[in-house]
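Sugar ABC transporter ATP-binding protein: structure tokens wanted.
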Amino acid sequence: MPEGQQPILELQGITKSFGGVEALRGVDFALLPGEIHGLVGENGAGKSTLMKIIAGVHTEFSGRVLIDGQATHFRSARDAHAAGIAMVHQELSVAPDLTVAENVFLGNQPTNRLGLVQWRRMAREAGEQLARFGIDVDPMSRLGDLPIGLQQLIEIARVLFSGARIVILDEPTSALSPPEVERLFVTLKRLREQGTAIVFISHFIEDILRVSDTVTVFRNGRKVAETASAATSKGALIEAMIGRGGEALEHSYTDDLMLPRPSDSSVVLKVDKLSLARSLQDVSFEARAGEVLGIYGFMGCGQQELSRILFGKLKPDAGTLAVDGTPKRFTSTAAARRAGVALVPESRRAMLFHQEPVYKNISISILDRISSLLLKPAQERDIAKHQIDQLQIRPPVVGLDLGMLSGGNQQKVALAKWLTYPPKLLVLCEPTRGMDVGAKNDVINIVRDLRAMGLAIIVLSTEPETVLSLADRILVLKRGAVVREFRNEPVSKDRLLEAA
Ligand SMILES: Nc1ncnc2c1ncn2[C@@H]1O[C@H](COP(=O)(O)OP(=O)(O)O)[C@@H](O)[C@H]1O
Ligand SMILES: [Mg+2]
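Answer:
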């Protein structure tokens, strides 16, 4: 940071808790006019929370906020906005039912003397702004009809051109294509020249190093490093992010783990040059019987689209799939299931019914497999009892409402559905997200059992720990392309992050 310049924004000793959980602890942070300040840190490190304090979203915290040297306490996001602070949130916060133009001018529409919205002017100006940002879209189209990446770009454009003096971008590039990222960076640099202060949060450390002047690193709610971008490296930042030493209770995967020799058992799934506009490019891989293939990447890397294609919910633009050597064209989830593919989606809640007893939850997949054949409740219960036994679901009570079970046991129920008629290929999306250590270990053990039964298993996750704890072989997906495969070699959290 250049000496002697007055920060446009200064935070002193910020501490913030949610319930009993401390999200930030004693954080100092300063932002200079005409500076692009990068923030990095693992998921949950506290980056978004700090930014939401600046943007007036979180109003209860301890510590001081100074704007132009003046102590300030925003009571709302509107207050912060009035003070010239604008933020692109990690979660899209556009209004899908409004037009593109209305979204660009959200809460700020041009009106005439009678207070009526000047539609034509609004559409023209919105179109001009977006064009300056390289976005070619009809300003009168409904925003929700556009692809997510484009919606994200429009939201970014809205914030960048709002005239704010402080602009915060919280992981804005996850759904953007490389040329869109380039255009964003050109615009950020132009704003910097005009004296705007910018905070840029991203998982893509190369991007942070390329565009920002200063980088701050968060770990476990604390600021652990601040440095000029020119004076650091990707490796040094990753090391600061994940920390070293035995501070973590769980296995932290900071040391190398040796992946086994690749399996030479039969290929269950072969994916060849799968492509999908904006999401996947020429993705090819094989999944083998008795092997767990991990697919790791940041949010928006294409994992979700890939899993949807494998389960027949999304049609690829190009590429082929083969199961057991037979080419498949999955036109529906039923077709995928008939071919022996089972998917446990990210939100296992989407497939589980908390108000229904455990046995119903287990039998539901059976019912829709043989829908013409109605199972008697006694049969359903018998099948469920067998599964409860096999997977050691606790408590072992078939009639208990699912909602009464712990997360790990619910996950077992989700798996039990598939084991009644074991699939050839099991696709697990974020199988341990949000679980405590005990539940995670349960899931790890189940996956190992299924592998031993000879299933081909694919684990898709944005958490390095998840793939490291489960996978025999790991692919890294970056912006829709496979950029690295780890097999029969040492791998660790920092090697994965480095590759992504
Ligand atoms: N609204 C909230 N309610 C409860 N806990 C929250 C909330 N927002 C964030 N947290 C918790 O605060 C911590 C920091 O989260 P966050 O600031 O989102 O991290 P990051 O943006 O670095 O991934 C996490 O433990 C998260 O679970
Ligand atoms: Mg965040």
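Residues 245-249, 367-373 have pLDDT under 50 and may be disordered. The chain has two domains: 9-242, 257-499.

Cheers.
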